[in-house]
Amino acid sequence: MGDSTKLPDDEPLTLAEACKVIFKGAISPDTLMAEASRGRLIMEKIGRRWFVTPAAIREMRKKCEVVQPAKARASGSNRGASETESLSRLSGSSETDRINTARDAARMKLRKLNDSLPTTSLKNTSRRQAVVIPLKS
Q1: How far is residue 75's CA from residue 55's CA, in Å, rounded to a whole number?
Q2: pLDDT grade for 60, boundaries at 50, 70 and 90
Q3: Count of CB atoms within 10 A of residue 83's CB?
C-alpha cells in the first residue's frame, strides 16, 4: 500500500486522500462510495465529509479479493476428478441455482403474505356504461 504503511491504522483520510495516498490515483472517491454501498467498506461521516481509515481500506481489500480460475485445457479427457469438481463449482450453474432458489423462496413468502391480506375490492364490481354525448357540429 505504499505510503499508507506510515499512516496509523485509525488515521482518518478523506476519500480523495485515500485514493491518492493508498491507491496512487488508480481509483476515484466514487469507487470507494460504491464499495461502501456494497457493504465492503466502513466509512465515517463527519459533518458533510466522508472519511476512511487505512485499516478499513485493508479490510475492504480482503473482501474484494478474487481468485481467478485456472484456464481450462482444450481437452477435458485428461482432467482429474478434483479439477472437474472445481470447474463445475466455478461454472455459474450453482450460482444460478442459488439465485433461483432464493427467488422461489421470496415468491413463496410473498404469496403467503398476499393470501393473508383481506380483499380490498368487492367481488362483483360492475362498471357502468359511459354515456356518449354527441358533439354538435
Answers
A1: 45
A2: very high
A3: 14
